[in-house]
Design goal:
This protein has eleven helices and twelve strands. It is α+β, with helices and mostly antiparallel strands. It has two domains: about 80 residues, Phosphorylase Kinase, domain 1; about 230 residues, Transferase(Phosphotransferase), domain 1 (Orthogonal Bundle), CATH 1.10.510. A hairpin with a 4-residue loop joins strand 9 and strand 10. Helix 4 packs antiparallel against helix 10 and helix 6 crosses helix 9. The chain starts with a strand and ends in a 9-residue tail after the last helix. The C terminus is likely disordered.
């Protein structure tokens, strides 16, 4: 499709990536002259009415949310080639690539990435949208002027729009199709993995807790399990191993945040994204900004797990220089 013009407006110049629902291209907006990213459905997905519905839901969901931490949508529609979505073109990398490159992230960097994503979820949930596929690949670290890095949530393709009557402070119960399992298994909340009828925005908070766990420990819970069925059973029956056992240098407050986000019972988790954001800020302070100089790895000579928690913290709670005192 390179060189094709979508909807008479967007020339596809280069393939940026491919996913389960379609492909994303770097494109030129012939009207404004700006560079944009255009997502188009794959041929197989284009034949599915359900997938097309989700694709259109992605644009409706994202357009309805006003946040610097949600990737902007400029246009959406259908042309002769099928449905398409026009998004802001972002320079940088997703959190999944960052995790692979750096392995263990410094606690403050981990907190800032997750806090910015949580701020985006606050706005999404206020707009009645549950993302249902929060994972490192859908958290993009966009590099801007002056070295500023902004976390932006991508891909609302499996998002669930909540009805107006359900947009209240108390987390609503949202009906999904019986047996439907949407999202990425390693980051699914237990109720989502079961295909339960009640899946609400607390599933997003679980997934964000998994992202924080992975950033700190360089390992997501259940990552070593290969069989999907075993992952599902484990998710539904076993709480993740305490993150401080894999990252003994983190504070007790940070460990408690991860533990609360990953309660099997959703009524015992953070009940809103705003509540989780407040907890993150209690560890981080009000400053959530990220600079390119902060994108460094935590020292690889971390203390052995045989050390006591107090000994581990005493020997390793030295922030890398980019963070300052």
């Amino acid at each position: 499709m390179i060189g094709s013009i979508i909807h008479g407006k967007y020339r596809l110049d280069r393939l940026l990536g491919e996913g389960g629902m379609g492909s994303v291209y770097l494109a030129h907006d012939l009207g404004s002259g700006r560079a944009v990213a255009v997502k188009v459905l794959c041929a197989e997905a284009d034949e599915s009415a359900t997938i097309i519905e989700r694709f259109h839901r992605e644009s409706q969901a994202a357009i309805s949310i006003d946040s610097p931490h949600i990737a902007r949508i400029f246009d959406a529609g259908t042309d002769a080639r099928g449905p398409f979505l026009v998004m802001e073109h972002l320079e940088g990398e997703d959190a999944g690539c960052l995790f692979e490159r750096l392995h263990h992230l410094p606690p403050k960097l981990s907190l800032r990435i997750v806090a910015q994503a949580c701020a985006g979820l606050v706005k999404a949930h206020e707009a009645g949208v549950v993302h249902r596929d929060i994972k490192p690949a859908n958290l993009f670290l966009a590099h801007g002027d002056g070295g500023v890095v902004t976390v932006k949530i991508l891909d609302f393709g499996v998002a669930k729009m909540l009805p107006m009557w359900a947009r209240r402070d108390v987390p609503p119960e949202v009906l999904t199709r019986t047996g439907a399992v949407l999202g990425s298994p390693l980051y699914m909340a237990p109720e989502q993995a079961r295909g339960a009828r009640a899946v609400d925005h607390r599933a997003d908070l679980w997934a964000l807790g998994i992202v924080l766990y992975q950033a700190l420990a360089a390992h997501a819970p259940n990552q070593e399990i290969e069989a999907l069925g075993e992952i599902i059973v484990t998710l539904c029956t076993q709480a993740p191993r305490p993150v401080e056992e894999l990252a003994p240098w983190i504070s007790s407050g940070l460990a408690a945040i991860v533990a609360r986000a990953l309660r099997l019972d959703p009524t015992q988790r953070f009940q809103t994204a705003a509540e989780m954001l407040d907890a993150l800020r209690s560890e981080l302070g009000e400053e959530m900004s990220i600079d390119e100089s902060m994108l460094v790895s935590w020292p690889v000579d971390a203390p052995p797990s045989s050390l006591t928690r107090a000994e581990a913290m005493a020997t390793t709670m030295r922030e890398p220089k980019p963070f300052g005192p």
